[in-house]
Amino acid sequence: MYIDSGLETHLKEINQGMGADERCYLYGDPAYVLSYGIVTGYKATVRLPLNPVLKEMNAHMSSIRVSVEHGFGETMNLWAFNGYKRSLQSGLSPIAGYFLVAILLSNIHSCFYRNESCDRFDCDPPSLSAYLSLV
After folding, report:
1. Which of 119, 38, 30, 27 is nearest to 65 (CA)?
2. pTM higher than 0.70 for the full model?
3. 68 CB neighbour count, 10 Å cutoff
4. What is the mean pLDDT of residues 85-96?
5. What is the maximum span of the chain, computed from C-alpha positions, in angstroms?
6. Hey, how many other C-beta atoms are within 10 angstroms of the C-beta on 37?
7. Helices 95-113 and 52-78, interaxial angle, to 10°?
8. Using alpha carbons only, how large is the chain's radius of gyration in Å?
9. Domain parsing of the chain, residue ranges
10. CA distances, 92 to each of 31, 45, 78, 97 (Å)
11. Backbone angle region of 125, left / alpha / beta, with phi > 0 → left and psi within -120 to 50 → alpha
12. What are the pLDDT digits (tens) for 3-53?
């Protein structure tokens, strides 16, 4: 799905000509670590334990990742139809379309009721008209 999404190609385009310290990366699941642009947490080895800075970095990134995953969970709770595996089959249902509509509706819901990401990142959601670019 990562390859099919075009994110890898987009990251390569964004990072073209940039130095290693300026490139954009995605923090993700270790299953994708061999893909371009994906980074995961630091791992300790038997002979080389993690220093306190790397441990803190792992804890910080993990907390952000959990917050993002809660956003996906909230979308699934609000729009449970997207979780019915038997009724949604790749190639037979417009799964991506359903998911995009669910995200749009979840974002609208967050404009009215906030969400965990607002609390985690200490920010207010936009007004509905600002989110929908009506102003």
Report:
1. 27
2. no
3. 13
4. 74
5. 58
6. 19
7. 100
8. 18
9. 1-40, 43-133
10. 27, 45, 23, 12
11. beta
12. 778 888 999 999 999 998 899 988 887 777 678 888 888 889 888 999 999
